[in-house]
Write a structure and sequence with these properties.
The protein is mostly helical and about 425 residues long. Helix content is about 80%, strand content about 0%. The protein is built from 23 helices and no strands. The protein is globular.
Length: about 425
């Protein structure tokens, strides 16, 4: 075998062995990279230089800002106000509380940009509320953690920023923000339809009758928090300010709203949420920095070209190629965190996708939707774990009852993958 082939075997072999030994993902990536570099004779200083170069990127500044803004808004009363608003909007329908759950995730995910923040803030309120009204606890938990994945699609999603960086500038953050809106809303609509079907079949209750005056009151009550999403999208996509600047403005706006309008932000709460944000950002940046050295070794060994050649020997049909890529991404999502996958696999799969005519922005949404499914799958699925901890439902029961939701996510993924206008119409309006 050639040096290149042995290097690929060492890199992937060490990585998979350490991963299945349940070693922390960042250490699995780091050790496999270092071992392969030693075999190839690459200076280990590359690990430091690549990591620092990734973290020092200007675009990276947007990520901690969006995370802090999401923490500020999710820590206060905004989640309760959003629940009240969407309950007055759709709660009167059969199974309305399940639809409230989905609609609340649509709005809240667009504000926090984080499925885990969504589940933590909304799930602690809605899951007990749904159980009290007669919903199965498994269904209440599953609809919560599945609808929360809209936070990855509807801006501001910091994972879109990670993808844009890993893509090497061929996909702009503003276009990715716009491209994720329709797929996120499509997922919400499909989940609402399924919720209605389950409500009719299982006899779930209706909420209070529709009241237009209550709808108006609750809308204005949540309006100032919802404006965060409008500020970010319009500012970043119209060129008024960059994605990084919009993230900084989002923090300022979030602090104004929570301190002077909702009046639930105190110095202690601010200090606590900054501490949580620092932990989240630090972990994310460390993983991304280490993953960039792994990506360097992958590029050095010409893994993208090798994998492309392998796929092309199997088929040259664009549909089958996209199905293969989707399948690989779903499998990776089961065992790795999203940031690492985006950094490592984007340089591998993006050239293959572009060679068959897939737009880089479209492919970014395909990747993120795939990885959203990974948030629900064991053993690493973060959303699955948080849902289990909040609801108290056994993990085994959640996994079995999640099967219909997996099917819904997969079918929606196929639509997103093979119907590009659904994704590209909005971003193509921005020239």
């Amino acid at each position: 075998m050639s040096t290149q082939e042995i290097g690929i075997i060492i890199l992937l072999g060490v990585f998979l062995v350490l991963l299945f030994m349940r070693m922390e993902i960042m250490f699995s990536i780091l050790i496999s990279s270092v071992v392969t570099m030693l075999y190839l004779g690459i200076p280990l200083s590359v690990v430091i230089t690549r990591s620092v170069a990734t973290i020092r990127s200007y675009g990276m500044l947007a990520i901690p800002h969006f995370i802090i803004a999401g923490e500020v808004l999710s820590d206060g009363s905004l989640s309760r106000k959003i629940i009240e608003f969407v309950e007055s909007l759709v709660g009167w329908i059969r199974g309305g509380l399940a639809m409230v759950n989905v609609a609340a995730s649509t709005f809240f995910g667009g504000i926090s940009g984080s499925p885990l923040a969504d589940i933590s803030s909304l799930g602690t309120v809605l899951i007990p509320m749904m159980k009290k009204q007669g919903y199965d606890e498994e269904f209440a938990t599953n609809i919560t953690i599945t609808s929360a994945q809209q936070g990855l699609m509807i801006p501001p999603s910091h994972n879109m920023i990670i993808y844009a960086m890993a893509a090497g500038g061929v996909a702009s953050v503003s276009k990715l923000f716009l491209a994720g809106i329709v797929p996120g809303i499509l997922l919400a609509i499909v989940l609402m339809i399924y919720s209605y079907y389950c409500a009719v079949k299982r006899g779930y209750p209706k909420g209070e009758p529709f009241n237009f005056i209550r709808l108006v009151k609750t809308f204005f009550s949540s309006f100032w928090g919802l404006m965060t999403l409008v500020i970010i999208i319009l500012g970043a996509t119209t060129g008024v300010f960059t994605a990084t600047e919009s993230a900084a403005i989002a923090i300022l706006w979030a602090l104004i709203v929570t301190k002077f309008i909702y009046k639930d932000m105190t110095a202690k709460r601010l200090w606590d949420l900054i501490g949580r944000s620092v932990i989240t950002v630090s972990r994310l940046l460390i993983v991304m920095g280490i993953a960039s050295s792994f990506g360097f070794v992958v590029a050095f060994l010409r893994v993208p070209q090798t994998l492309a050649s392998l796929i092309y020997t199997l088929t040259d049909n664009p549909i089958l190629i996209l199905l293969i890529i989707n399948g690989i991404l779903i499998l990776l999502g089961m065992i790795m965190d999203m940031g690492s996958i985006l950094i490592i696999t984007t340089p591998i799969f993006l050239p293959i996708a572009m060679s068959i005519g897939v737009d880089p922005v479209h492919f970014g949404i395909i990747m993120i939707f795939n990885l959203a499914i990974g948030m629900l799958t064991p053993p690493v699925g973060g959303a699955l774990m948080v849902g289990h901890l909040i609801s108290g439902v056994k993990m085994e029961r959640l996994i079995v009852t999640l099967i219909p939701f997996f099917i819904i996510m997969l079918l929606t993924l196929l639509v997103v993958t093979f119907f590009p206008p659904l994704v590209m119409t909005l971003p193509n309006l921005i020239k």
